[in-house]
Fold:
Amino acid sequence: MSDRRSFYITTPIYYVNDKPHIGHAYTTIACDVLARFWRMDGRDVYFLTGTDEHGQKVEKSAEAAGMDPLAFCDLQSAKFRELAAAMNISNDDFIRTTEPRHIAASQAIWQALEKAGDIYLGSYAGWYAVRDEAFYAEDELTKGPDSRFVAPSGAPVDWVEEPSYFFRLSAWGDRLLAFYDAHPDFILPPGKRNEVVSFVKGGLKDLSVSRTTFKWGVPVPGAPDHIMYVWLDALTNYVTAVGYPDKQAELYQRFWPADLHMVGKDILRFHTVYWPAFLMAAGVEPPKRVFAHGWWTAEGQKMSKTLGNVIDPYELIASYGLDQVRYVLLREFPFGNDGDFSRKSVITRINGELANGFGNLGQRTLSFIAKNAEGRLPEPGRLTEADQALLQHVYGLLPAMRSEMASQALYQALQLWVEAVNAANRYIDSEAPWSLRKTDPERMGTVLWVLAEAIRCLALIIHPVVPQAADRLLDQLAVDSTARSFAAIGTSGALKGGTLLPAPAGIFPRLQDPVAAA
Ligand code: ME8
Structure:
């Protein structure tokens, strides 16, 4: 077994009632960047994504499509898998909740809860929002324009009365509060943690965990009239994937408890209240962290099918390029905040930081070497203070970015990288290799080597965000594929003078300027 530190990261599993949109792409890309970052940093990473296929919402959508629910799920789940491939997502597994391994794990967790005495039969009478697949107390609801109740998410609610099994959530309040206390970073960002703590302090009610008025779900063991509440089934996916209920399974031993469940703020309560309570009751260790990121709006408006303003990730990739989309989604606003998608701002950022910033740095350096050094990386001479300052800056990026990534501060991590790219662009301007060509070719060679070495490290460290572009640039620096990990950042992996470099080619074309185009 590996003695490398493990890192298990998950996305939410997405409902298959609709096709994937920018929100799903956002969460999955953020997880992919973290997974790739820790992999390149030498950790043993397991990255899970997948689809949530049971429940009333999916059953209704299948019905509306005139399809058998499983055939509908097959079709829709494939769309999420295809999007993951189109976004170059490096997941290790893709789970579907209709798979036999998951049905078995869900039933096993149910039995563990039952055995612990935390499940009892009763009957539910209350409000339910199919869109959220969530129960609501009346004091959480507000009246909509047609004077019908709506959930805090805006979803319509229906009055439901049916026999139901309950989970004794009310008995878990104090233990949850003690757990949050003992694990201050379990819920991030801190504002979200405060929300959850005050919700739990307000008192928890027992939770209805089975339904009897429809059929599309995991049958409750020993009570075939009941199907499991879709959230109990869905949350279990995170342990199914590592082999639960077999706690001796190799993956379970290596990766549970998960290091990070990444979720949107809409599903915070399910992950930070219900999920740790289910797990503790079932005798399973809760995950180490749940990070709730913010919400995208589109050009200042909430995205909705009715408004017709839902942003399609395929369209974005076609318009701006895949790596550019991966980068810009994480760079528009700090991770954890809400933010707005504006095409003008996205284009300005891609042009500023990728095309004119990093792309141009690579292009000017490499084409200068091609033209003025016969395509060979020059040998460095004695390094000046300015040379050393730039190299120290880029070599020091790794520990600085590592500490931002450890708290999921993706925007700040990218900010550090941008500052280093800017420093390298300032260096090329002030060292001006073009004016050294005739006067001091040896010094010109040193400057070019320092630039190439800085670009190598900048490309390696941004690789998790823009893997294809970074690889193209590393190819142009003749960096061996075995030297593309963070261990090669620093003098140990430094470029050898004299290496023949392939012909240079730009990596980030300039997009049409929205202001000029208007
Ligand atoms: O909730 N901005 O699935 P779901 C940012 N099946 N992120 C967004 C977004 C937006 N506008 N819209 C969606 C479910 N997301 C359950 C999860 S997990 C055990 C079960 C992202 O298809 C965000 O990550 O409704 C959000 O939490 C998720 O999609 C909801 O996906």
